[in-house]
Design brief:
This protein is α+β, with helices and mostly antiparallel strands. It contains 3 helices and 7 strands, in the order βββββαββαα. The protein is flat, with a radius of gyration of 24 Å.
Length: about 180
């Protein structure tokens, strides 16, 4: 239908995702979303939040199943869908696509999940040995930092993990953009 309004929206999930299965076996999920559009205030010469906009989002089939597994209250999401109704100052959307916003969190896909060692506590780095006192065990330690042939993580992942993630500390956050 050419008159349908398809729109991208960024907002916060409010409440739990409701999931149902129809008599024919189609999975349907519904969740509420609140967006806080920003607008320019020429007098204050600054951006400010305008009135919140409420949405009721409906997703179908695999997208519904994935949304029910992935979304929780307070998660910021990006939604692409079409307006199907307006009731009580709330826009109802039929969602075509949905993603978790990475502006406030890290999201992992099934293919990019870190290994259990990534969650292990990192001990303080040992002081470096003097250059003259190199041992035969040092080349073996460097070799263990390289990814194994079956490891699909990039080399920087392994290097940062073995060094205690120094580049991801708040002091270095601006340098890694």
């Amino acid at each position: 239908m050419p008159s349908e309004l398809v729109m991208p929206i960024s907002g916060t999930v409010t409440g739990d995702v409701e999931c149902r299965i129809t008599e024919t076996g189609t999975v349907i999920a519904r969740f509420r979303l609140t967006a806080h559009p920003r607008e320019w205030d020429p007098r204050a010469k600054a951006w400010r939040d305008s009135k919140p906009v409420s949405y009721v989002c409906t997703v179908w089939r695999d997208l519904a199943r994935n949304a029910a597994e992935s979304l929780t209250d307070g998660v910021t999401v990006l939604v692409h869908g079409r307006v199907t109704d307006v009731r009580d100052n709330t826009l109802w959307l039929s969602v075509n696509d949905l993603g978790i916003s990475l502006s406030q969190r890290i999201a992992y896909t099934e293919q990019s999940l870190p290994g259990p060692q990534a969650a292990a506590p990192v001990s303080a780095p040992k002081p470096a040995a003097p250059a003259a006192a190199t041992t035969a065990s040092q080349p073996a330690a460097r070799a263990s930092a390289r990814p194994t042939p079956t490891d699909s993580r990039p080399p920087w992942w392994t290097a940062e993990r073995t060094q205690g993630w120094p580049a991801f500390t708040p002091a270095h956050a601006d340098q890694r953009g």
